[in-house]
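Task card 7
Instruction: Convert sequence to structure tokens.
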Amino acid sequence: MAAYDQARCVPTRDVQARTRASLEAFLGALVTGDVAAAEALLASDVRALSDGGGKVRAALVPIVGPQRVILFLRRLMEMRGPPVAWEERMLNGLPAVVAVFHPGADPMLALHMVLRVDLDSSGRIHALHSVLVDRKLMGVRMPVPE
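Output:
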């Protein structure tokens, strides 16, 4: 319990602002293909965790390290395509991205996603968490495609 208490993030306005800035900068770098900028925002021990609940495709083990995380996310973007709608939201006190995707040929690809990040003490992203299974997203209002 002591380790949890030490690592616990209290969502102050400052933490919210730093998290929002890092999330926006990281996603912007990914979308524009600026790998160096994306990598500079990640901690050396960054971990990407995804939860597909056994219903949709998700990484079965954590993706660890800046290069592996970026490669994984870029390949996922190529396979999945851009979201048809997305919004930044405050979830559990911190900024997150809520996205809706067009149904593709693969029914195992998620149609909805929530992505949030955790920052380390230096302000770098040390964890990315994506929830992909609809059952766990029932309480989240999804953006409506225009």
